[in-house]
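job 3f2a | input accepted
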Amino acid sequence: MGNKDFLTVTVGKARFSVITENLIRCEWSENACFFDGETLFAVNRRHNGCDAQIRKTERSAEIQTEAITLFYLDNGENGFSARNLYGELSGKPWHFGMKNEQNLGGALATLDGADGFRQTDDGILSRAGWFTLDDSENAALEDGWLKKSLRKRHTDLYIFSYGTDYKKALRALFRVSGPAALPRRYMLGAWYSRWWAYTDEEILGIADEYDQHGFPLDVMVLDMDWHHHDWTYRGTEECKRYRARTGYGHAGNLGWTGYTWNRRLIRDPRALIRSLHERGIAVTLNDHPHDGVRSHEDAYPDFMRAMGLPPESGVDLELDAGDRRYMEALFASVHDKREAEGVDFWWLDWQQDHLKPVIRGTRLSHLPWLNRCYYRHAMRDGKRGASFSRFGGIGDHKHPIWFSGDTKATWDCLAFEVAFTASSSNAGLFYWGHDTGGFFGEADAQLYVRWTQFSGFSACLRAHSERNAALDRRPWKWGAEASEAMRKIYRLRSRLMPYIYSLAYEGYAAGEPMIASMYLDYPEKEEAYRNPQQYRFGKAFLCAPVTTPTGENGRASQRVWIPEGTYYHFFTETCYGAGVHTIESPIDEFPLLVRAGVPIPMQPYKSRMTECASEELTVRCYAGASDTFTLYEDDGISRKYEDGEYLKTRLVYTEKNGVYTLTVSPEGHGYRGMPTARVYTLELIGAPKGLRLQTQDATLTFENGRYTVRSSARDWNEPFMATLA
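job 3f2a | predicted structure (725 res):
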């Protein structure tokens, strides 16, 4: 206990570290040699200053915090057991090896092939009030890389104890494992993707069609056909012989990995990317790195020289992600060159297999390690990291965002995705990018609309499909009714981007999930555990996406549970109180309920919804309660926010004695590219008729039951207050 930053106690071959009142680390090592470095899970084990009582003898230790009482007896056993490690977690008896029967679920690495419910891996949250995470077989890091000399007979256990305070559990997770990273702003926007061949003219044509049809677009995904495939260079039989001879080749062939532009389709890649950037659209390329940089690639000579090998050898080196020299050579010879042409980030596809060569003592798959490598590679030039890949497990929340895989277009799959996305927050995963509408299956316009409504209130609105023209996810290709219903959601998400980006910052700064199951806020209410079809989208919205077809009346029903307070239906402005409600929705609506009192920051519609802040800010409030919200803004891509380059605007809405007031208070240094002046508009819904404006330098209108107060232009740091009475 010599270092004041750490609170530890050692008894024989066991060591215990108090990290927070809700989290204790327990280690046992056969040679009493303990590991203090990072793992892919743990990056910070410092004591947070909480009160802890420690009593130690030569052969025992007792540790007590607000939530944990832990006993250890050195009884000569080779490791922990129920006989030597036990205690109370949140006031309930616990012992080593006890099974957690009430886990509330977490995430999965992928939903590939899913057409309905799947059992998830465990998350941190459990109705038992505790969770243990075994980090013993995780990869250890040394000097920023995988540590090859591993711990012998080492147990590394993290005990979380939180009772029903699930938010404390998440805060403890982010304390030890690092915060849920703030994504680049454009990754929260609208994406277009499809898996089939395309030309540069077609890609630009699709981008222009989005504008022509009134749909926003922020990210263009170039799937596998951007590069040559091995079957271009080798016949099918030769491919089979090559695989038999070398023993590798992803997914049964050598056609998935590639790094050389297919110029028969994309004649001038640099010009294509420049044209997309001029339109304000980011670009990502699909990458299956499994088979490495092979001899037919343009980058092969540079790669081999970086590996210290002669290019004329023609040797094909399989991906060795655990080798630092290999990964540095891969990034330098391939990724750097594509990024110099303008590629913004990479879609790391597949890679669920185990790392090869295997590092003894671990069960490390490629996913968590490659996600970290790609994310950190993207942090050059002062940018935030960026990764788009399948989930690498608890601890991978530091590398957003995630691709959930190739799902089937079924109603059951949509219903599962809703619940799955919320439970994923229990593992710290806040940002899924789903294949909206499903990757493969039957073409169902109604299903696609309902999936779009769900994706519109998730981390990003990403469309993707297999090589099937009937499934092309351009929204305007699904009939007039479906197209109009989807346009409504796309444009609404564009208007809500200031609110959505603020939620992302809250995830980073406070550990608050963007999407949360109802029990996160209402752990004592049984109904909170019985309604997986709905979730909280920040503090303002309760979402219950429709996951069944419409009936003969042209409407679909959804059950909605409101725990307390007053809520308004966003589309109809119907007011609902606490209780269970069955809400019927036509195809262009779904149960999207807004909590009374929460000020919601909105922007004018933008065809690039994630562009930096607008010179106009609308704050919408629904009468019935008083509440606050903090609008967060920065440049959307750099790490300068870590040094204070951002703007926080506190929005305070109050109701008292018939007086309705909104106060707008900007705070902070601001950021590069922000507007120098701003016009504020207050929209007030649900207040009684006959109110008068008490504020100078503003105008008031009243139409269709809605008050609208509009200010004159104000300096970016000048506060504003609107009062109606």
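job 3f2a | The domain at 7-90+129-177 is CATH 2.60.40.1760 (Immunoglobulin-like).
job 3f2a | closed
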